[in-house]
């Protein structure tokens, strides 16, 4: 195989992580499942899933991740969206802060647990 053919093959394998790529739902779900299984650390798994599936709405990504991570069973989808937002905006320390507050706070529908009302 020539170098040019090999380069084209490598590019085709990585197209799913490029900006703007919209994978069919079954394909995205399969990849998210592989990411969740491949990274035992919750933060790392969510970070990789978020980084490689930026075109998915966060609510959909949260539902998919929650489906494949038993350690998220006690969290609502909104909690998982908050964790994804914390990863994106606050890195590991932001993620840990949201995880602590969500795990210890009573669940209230429709409100933001970190805001005083």
Describe the structure.
The N and C termini lie far apart (65 Å). This protein has helices spanning 3-14, 25-38, 42-52, 58-68, 77-104. Residues 1-5 have low confidence and may be disordered. Helix 2 (25-38) crosses helix 4 and helix 3 (42-52) packs antiparallel against helix 5 (77-104). The protein is an all-alpha fold and 117 residues long.
List the helices and strands and how they pair.
Blueprint lengths: L2 H12 L10 H14 L3 H11 L5 H11 L8 H28 L13
Helix pairs in contact: 2-3, 2-4, 3-5, 4-5
What is the compact description of this entry?
This protein is mainly α.
Features:
disordered N terminus, 117 residues, globular, mainly alpha
Distance between the termini: 65 Å
Share of helical residues: 55-70%
The largest β sheet comes out as: none
Strand residue content:
under 5%
Q: What overall geometry do the principal axes of the alpha carbons give? A: globular
- Mean pLDDT rating: 80
- The Cα radius of gyration reads 17 Å
Structural class: mainly alpha
Which segments are poorly predicted (pLDDT under 50) over 5 or more consecutive residues?
1-5
Order of helices and strands: HHHHH
Number of strands: 0
Number of helices: 5
């Amino acid at each position: 195989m020539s170098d040019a053919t090999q380069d084209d093959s490598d590019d085709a394998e990585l197209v799913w992580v490029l900006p703007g790529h919209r994978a069919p739902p079954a394909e995205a779900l399969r990849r998210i499942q592989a990411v969740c299984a491949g990274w035992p650390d919750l933060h790392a798994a969510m970070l990789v899933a978020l980084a490689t599936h930026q075109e998915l709405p966060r609510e959909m990504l949260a539902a998919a991740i929650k489906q494949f991570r038993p350690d998220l069973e006690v969290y609502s989808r909104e909690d998982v969206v908050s964790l994804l937002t914390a990863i994106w905006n606050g890195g590991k320390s932001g993620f840990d802060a949201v995880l602590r507050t969500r795990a210890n706070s009573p669940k209230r529908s429709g409100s933001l647990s970190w805001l005083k009302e």
